[in-house]
Amino acid sequence: MTYPFRFTDVAEPSLEYGAARQWRGLAVRRLRASPGRHTGGVFDEHRLLFYLAEGVAAECACEGVKQRRLQIPGDFDVVPAGADGSWEDQAPVDMVSVRLSPELLQASAEGLEIPGAARALAPRLGARDPLVEHLVRTLIAELDSPEHAGRLHADSLASALATRLLQDLAPVAPRRQILSKPQLRRLVEYVDTRLDADLSLDELAQVAGISVPHLTTLFRRTMGQSVHSYVMERRVIRARELLLAGGTGIAEAALETGFAHQSHLARWMRRLLGVTPGQLLRA
Questions:
Q1: Domain range for residue 275?
Q2: How many domains does the chain have?
Q3: Is residue 159 part of a domain?
Q4: Which of the four pLDDT bands, split at 50, 70 and 90, describes residue 145?
Q5: What pLDDT score was predicted for residue 170?
Q6: Do 277 and 193 share a domain, yes or no?
Q7: Is 218 within the bounds of a domain?
Q8: Phi/psi class of residue 226: alpha, beta or left (left: φ > 0; alpha: ψ in -120 to 50)?
Q9: 81-109: string of b/e by CB count within 10 Å (b at 16+)?
């Protein structure tokens, strides 16, 4: 479909850089582009540009792929590492730039037993995907939060996003339908003895003896929730036990169970149990 519009001539289009966060293999930043033609440039990382604009006429190009469209919130473009792109907007556009390292995608592809998929990643313009949108909006929430996400949460988001981008390139065939009982027992025991630590998906995958993509997929199938959700649930339960046993203050209980501070504990306890630590003690 084509749209009858004319782009505004802007001599020097500009980008305004907003809040940014970076973790291992993953970086995210808010951007605001002025009307006009922008050159994306060539980067070492894979980029996903997620648009927040409503009804803005745009023309995008990347490695010979071109598209003219009216942007709506949730549209995104994928620009592979080493690829060059450009875009032209009729009005100012708010967007979020997500960068994924080639090492992250390569590790995810190998874990999914499609090792050539990372190199086969192709440009995508004006794409839409409910899971990608959910993951990016979770990252946007992290940008707006005064607290930095823990390593486990960031690892989970990075792995899920990399896996989703790779799933279009080859069928994913997990080695096992669910985690074996020994794998699950090792994971549960490992998490319970290290609730105060900054856990990562890498170390948990090593405990289970599988790759990170397989861990995230099989854990959800086995337990009905993500690794991150399970760990946070265990932390809240342990904090509740400490508080009800007496002799442990809220701040101390938060630190002993891996929360950044007592407000962090309070937010998760309210989410999972419906009460704050103070309300729990008063009851």
A1: 230-282
A2: 3
A3: no
A4: confident
A5: 47
A6: no
A7: yes
A8: beta
A9: bebebebbbbbebbbbbbbbbbebbbbbb
